[in-house]
Amino acid sequence: MNLQENQHYQNQYGQHLKDFIIANDPEFWKTISIWSAIKYYIRAGKKDGESLEKDLGKCKDYVKEYVALDGSGSINEVMEELELIKAQFEAWKCE
């Protein structure tokens, strides 16, 4: 994630929301990261005006955030987990 490009997440003192959350509740940022990764992975190639590559890039950015804070597992392992979640979701009929 490029914080310089995402200045719309800064407060009046130039501090980023991400840094605030990590400083106060790193587990919450892990949750945000994995949720965002799943969201972008599921929607990749489906949302009008957003390319498959862009969504997969965002997914990987969040996976990297998650792995960095979690300290266990690798990006590939998390991506494999996301693939399982995606397959389960795609098959889910809410029954």
Describe the structure.
The protein has helices spanning 17-24, 26-43, 52-70, 75-91. It has 95 residues and is mainly alpha-helical. It has one domain (17-91). The N and C termini lie far apart (37 Å). The mean pLDDT is 93.
Give a nutshell description of this structure.
The protein contains 4 helices and no strands.
Layout of secondary structure:
Layout: H1 17-24, H2 26-43, H3 52-70, H4 75-91
| Principal-axis shape | globular
Could you describe the largest sheet, including whether it forms a barrel? Answer: none
* Average residue-wise pLDDT: 93
The helix content is 55-70%
Strand residue percentage: under 5%
Estimated structural class: mainly alpha
**What's the count of strands?**
0
Computed Rg: 15 Å
- The SSE string, one letter per element, is HHHH
Q: Helical stretch count?
A: 4
Q: How far from one another are the termini?
A: 37 Å
Low-pLDDT ranges: none
Could you say how many structural domains there are in total?
A: 1
Give short descriptive properties of this protein.
single chain, mainly alpha, globular
